[in-house]
Amino acid sequence: EDVAHPGFLEGDSSTGSLLAVLAATPEGRLQPGAATVLRAAERLALSLGMVRKVLLVVPPQESVQRLALGQLLEEFQGDVVVLATSAAAAPPEVESRLLVECWPELTRSPRLVIGEPWTETAFAFLGCRPDQPGAVALRVRRLEEEEGQVILETSLDQGRLCARQTLDLAADVPWWITLAEDAEVPPRVPAPPAGGARVQRWAPRLERFYHRSDIQRLLEELKLETGVVRLADADFIIDVGFGVGNRDGYEAVIEPLEQALRALGVRRLVIGGSRKVTEELHLLPLDRQIGQSGVSVNPQVLLAVGISGAPQHLNYIGPRATVLAFNCDPEAPIMTLNQRQPRPRVFPVVGDLFETVPALTAALRKEEVRQPEKVGGVQKRNRSVCSGAPSELRRG
Questions:
Q1: Mean pLDDT, residues 161-167 taken together
Q2: What are the tens digits of pLDDT across the range 66-85?
């Protein structure tokens, strides 16, 4: 079930809940420490009478999500929230930072949140928010039970010092616990029969807007979101909006952007535009119009330049697309689309498009240039975007 808000993460009002946070690899496998976290979650939930839940951070590709979820359900039966985000394929520090940005507003937080080592930065922040204080135990090396109490042993000063603390749930604040890679956890105990798994898939909208200085990082996140190693392997549409203004604006930002993409080796590239661009500004022929009175599109990447986002335009962009939206208005409908629906995924870039789009063009030129293919010793040229009807633009 696809959801806009992960209701399964809400804490149980009667017994409290325990949330285990795991991440899958880009190939769809659980991390080596996942079994330890699940075992610790099971042990703590049984000892404290809590309901276990899992938040599984996975890449956006559905096939990878199925692999990771299948592996999880071999070990766990209960409520699962599948957090679909490019963070799952990012380095640990990026993954942890994006977890903070994705963390939802909950009516009632879980009493315990326990995670793999990569969650350390996120938990340190989430557990120390002034408006939502909590207790934090990081790099727990050993978890044990003594006389009815749960003891957490953590390492300090690169493992040279140890600290022991009692898991105290008397105060009504959540605990945020990360396990070290070599954490020692008591063996599993027989658990009561579970009622089966329920799964919610959640692709949250990140609150961050990107700016000119963020373009290089945005390209890396674009690769993660689309699942391509090289941007040259993706199919692109440049979606031109009324914001380019006139022919001079088109030549200043769109033509250099097209040239940079082709120099990068992108072969599946088409330029389309809004109704105003084709019918009023006459910058593109009518058969390049995207929207209700034009065509539907569903590329891997859509670069929306100066598009405000009227429904008769946005509704004809398919869910497969990852959209980089360049607009000076952060409240424009295209910039806030993911507040209303999870797909297509939009990365909003706020600022003057005559500054932000050239920044994108410059970043693309820094990417490794793919050598042109040769067929029979002759260099194969890319077909011009204006020669023939592009397959990516089809009548809806």
A1: 87
A2: 999 999 999 998 999 999 87
- Which H or E run includes 356? helix 353-366
Judge whether 140 and 39 are in contact, CB under 8 Å. Answer: no
- Which of 32-36, 159-163, 357-361, 373-377 bottoms out in mean pLDDT, i.e. has the lowest? 373-377
* Angle, helices 255-264/353-366, rounded to nearest 10 degrees: 20
Do 59 and 67 form a contact (C-beta atoms < 8 A)? Answer: no
> Token pair 């976290």 is at which residue?
37
- What whole-number distance in Å separates Cα of residue 119 and Cα of residue 9? 17
Burial state string for 131-159 with b = 16 or more CB within 10 A and e = fewer than 16: eeebbbbbbbbbbeeeeeebebbbbeeee
pLDDT-based confidence at 212, cuts 50/70/90?
low
> Could you tell me which of 286, 264, 266 has the C-alpha nearest to residue 275?
286
Residue with token string 């063996």: 187
3-state SS string for 204-254: CCCCCCECHHHHHHHHHHHHHHHCCCCHHHCCEEEEECHHHCCHHHHHHHH
Q: Which two tokens stand for residue 119?
A: 């969650």
Distance between CA atoms of residues 298 and 302, nearest Å: 8
Domains and CATH numbers, the chain: 2-202 (3.40.50.620), 212-395 (3.40.50.1220)
Q: Are 303 and 342 in contact (CB under 8 A)?
A: no
Q: How confident is the model at residue 377 (pLDDT cuts 50, 70, 90)?
A: very low
Segment 85-111 shows an average pLDDT of: 76
Please tell me whether residue 66 adopts helix, strand or coil conformation: helix
Tokens linked to 159:
């493992």
Residue ranges of alpha helices (H) inside 227-349 are 247-249, 255-264, 275, 311-314
- Give residue 62's identity as a one-letter amino acid code: E
Give the whole-angstrom CA distance, residue 24 versus residue 14.
Answer: 31
CA dist., res. 220 & res. 241, Å (int): 25
Summarize pLDDT for 246-303 with one digit per residue, the tens. Answer: 999 999 999 999 999 999 999 999 999 999 999 999 999 999 999 999 999 999 999 9
| pTM of this structure | 0.57
Query: Helix or strand or coil: residue 355?
Result: helix
CB 221 within 8 A of CB 86: yes
Give the model's pLDDT for residue 391. Answer: 38
From residue 362, give the alpha-carbon distance in Å to each of 215, 249, 261, 346. Answer: 9, 17, 11, 21
